[in-house]
Structures are given as C-alpha cells and as structure tokens.
Fold this sequence. Notes:
Blueprint: H1 11-17, H2 22-29, H3 38-58, H4 67-86, E1 94-95, H5 112-122, H6 142-152, E2 156-160, H7 163-175, E3 179-183, E4 189-190, E5 194-195, H8 196-202, E6 206-210, H9 218-223, E7 232-235, H10 251-260, E8 265-270, H11 288-294, E9 298-302, E10 313-317, H12 319-326, H13 330-334, H14 338-349, H15 357-360, H16 362-368, H17 371-385, E11 390-399, E12 411-420, H18 425-433, E13 439-440, E14 442-444, E15 447-451, H19 460-468
Amino acid sequence: MPKIKAKRPNPKSNSLKEIPSVQDILLSLSQKKLKIDDEYLKVLVQKVVQDFREKILSGAASENLSKQNITDEILERTIAEIDRIRSYRLKRVINATGIILHTNLGRSPIASQAVKHLSDILENYCNLEIDLVTGKRGDRINIVEEIICLITGAEGAVVVNNNAGAVLLTLYSLCHKKEVPVSRGELVEIGGSFRMPEVMKAGGVKMVEVGTTNKTHLKDYADRITPKTGGILKVHTSNYKIMGFTSSVPIDELIQLAGENQIPLIYDMGSGVIEDLRKWGYSREPVAREYIKAGVDIVTFSADKVLGGPQAGIIIGKKKYIEKIKKNHLLRALRCDKVTYALLDATLRLYFQPKELKKSLPVAQILNTPMDELRGRGTGLISRASKRHLHMNLIDTYSQMGSGALPLEKIPSVAVAVRSNKFTVTEIAKKMRIGTPPIVGYIENEWFMLNLRTVRKDEIPIIVTALKAL
Length: 470
C-alpha cells in the first residue's frame, strides 16, 4: 500500500488559534483608565485584532507565538492606537525650512493681538450677524468692509474663504455665461494643481486666450472683445517669472480698454500686499491700493500670505460691482465664519500703524530680522546642543517667501547644518519631525538643515532640547 504522508502542522494556523477574542482584550483593558468610551474602544480593538490576524497570514509575524505573547502585543498596540487617535492631528510645528509662507505648514503665522481677540470671541457669543445699535439682523461682511476700504481706498469689499473662491465668485457674479479674455502667459497653476482655466470654467465663463506665452499686446485683447464679452481678467503671475523676450500689457491700458467697452477689468493680484515691500528692502509686489487708485474695477487677493492674516480671499473694487457680487447666492457657500472674521479684523488693524509692523506682524518680523541676530541665535544653538556624536556648522544660506510671493527673491539667512555618527540625515530629519513639538527642516548635501530665518528666538531652546535628545 502507498504510504500516506502526514500533514505538517501549519505554524500560521497554530498562531491564528492563539489570537484572543475581542471580548478577552476588552476585559483586560477594563482595568486601565483609557479615557475613551467602550463603544469606540471595541472598534479599535477589533481593528488591532484584525490587523494582527492579517500580519500572521502574510508571514510578517513570528511563527509559533504563544497566546500570552499575542495577547500582550495586541494590548500594547491597542493602547498605542488609543494614544494616537486621542492626539490632536493639527499640531504646532517649528518651521526650520526657511520658507516663510509655507503652504504645507499653514502659511502665515498670526499676530498675537489677533489671537487674543479670537480667544475672546470664541469663548463667548459675538455680534457676527446682529446690528447692536438697531437690534436687527446684521451682515457679517460689515465687520471688515469699512477697514478694508479705508486701507485700500476701495468703494466696497467682500471676504470669502480663499482667493480661488474670490476669483470664482467674481467671475460668476459679473461675467456668467459670457466671454472673458485672459493672456496665455497668465493661465497659472496654483497650489494643489488648481488651475486658472478650471477656476474660470467653474465660474461659468468662457475663457478666451489672447496673445502668446511670452508676449501679449493690447491689440490681442481689443481684437477679442465682442458683445458677448463680460469682462477682462488679468492675473499676477506671482509664482513664476518669464524672463527674456517678453511683454505684457500695462494695467492702465487695460483699464482704458475695459472702460471704453463698459466691461469690468478684474485683477487677480494673488499674494495680497497692502504695504510696499520695497520699504523693507525687497522687490516690488503689487500693492492693492495702487491698483484701486489707478482705476481697476475689481481686485482679488489672499489674506493668509504676505498680508499676514487667516485663510481668506478678499474682493475689493467699485461699489456697483461689489454690490452685484454681494447679491450672488454663491456667496453663502463661500462665506467665512467668526474665526476668520475675528482674525482678519484684528490683523487689518495692525496696518493703521505701518511703521510698527516689524514688531506687530509675524511675517514682517521674519522678513526684517537682521542677519547678525540670526547668526547669534545659530552660534548659541550650536554651543548649547553640542554632543559627541553630533557635528554642527553654521552656514550662510537664503530663505524664500513662498506661496507664490517674491518668486525670484533670495532672502539672506543662516542655517545650522547637522550630521551624526549614530544616525543618517534621513533618520535625524524623521526624529525631529515626530518630536513634540515637531521640528521640520530639510536635507541638503547630506546635511540636515535648520534654516533660522523662520525660527523664532523662543523656539531655539526647543530645538536645542530636541538635538540633545537624539
């Protein structure tokens, strides 16, 4: 008779049999003060148990694990999962990248005065939509419209959730189902792969490309204006520059052309500068009030970039067009809440004293910190964080504004370059990122870099502690 081969025991199936039930794990956890409701705890335990089962089936787990070993590991993972899910996802981060308006790190830090005002608003009720004089329903736009108009010289203003929303709402309100000429060289792509053609399409207008990538003339616009034209759109190419054989139409010529054809000129200014950056020694960026004074009908810009406020899109311009925008029902879908209004209101009031902005506005503080002061901070950091396995150098480098502003400007800065005998630069970068608070730098030429232009003075001791803890 043929021999029957005995089946070898499958270590995977043995380990699977040793996995404790969800109820057993819950019973073991019941003695611990985990600060999470039993219903949610059960869901997390089920997830951890299932993940462990899949780990065994995939061969990633050790074979022939005892029931006690498996139970201990599941308990440990469950507690770690509870700690992870209870932790805030949005965390304070130390920005050591040197990019001042870092989109991934929340762009502009907010002024302390604005934060204090917001705290007062959030901890109590507020007059978001009530007229305290008449007792009747008010309009939240009125909270900031007067101050925006005072600072920019505009006749009216509207605030929405961001600048893409501002352009979208403006086009939908003033040019819906009409043609809008725009230069080919201004069809920009903004963060997150959002492109101007898509924004225009969503605004319900027909985009009419004029000119070429590098050259656009007044005649290009004039030739495409018809009875179907709803307005002219000009876009500030804030996140790149075309150099060399180029030309674009001066804004005053477009103002005249739009006026002659009785259509609005809409200017997407982008970054949102209220004070001329040349006063601080930097390149010129469009200043809102200059374009309003020149006669542009509608100007849109961001509040959370160079302006230094919360995420918002600001629309300013002539009253007849602003009133039309206010009546658009789409405004309700794009409107801001009390958090944005409180922060924007407080930030804008800092501009009443432009000479004090270097002290009161974080973006201005960062831009204007002297190089000698940065070097002093770097030298102190290196001396205090010195450890046998760490190698640190202070080097001259540069920062960038970020978020599309001053794209060609290399802002002088200094950085602390770090290496270690124990860890790779990638490991150092990760350890710094997962610390409390996270510290985000960058890797350059096999060094971990901490650019100090974007690091506050009071954050230096935190970095010192993190480096010493490596």
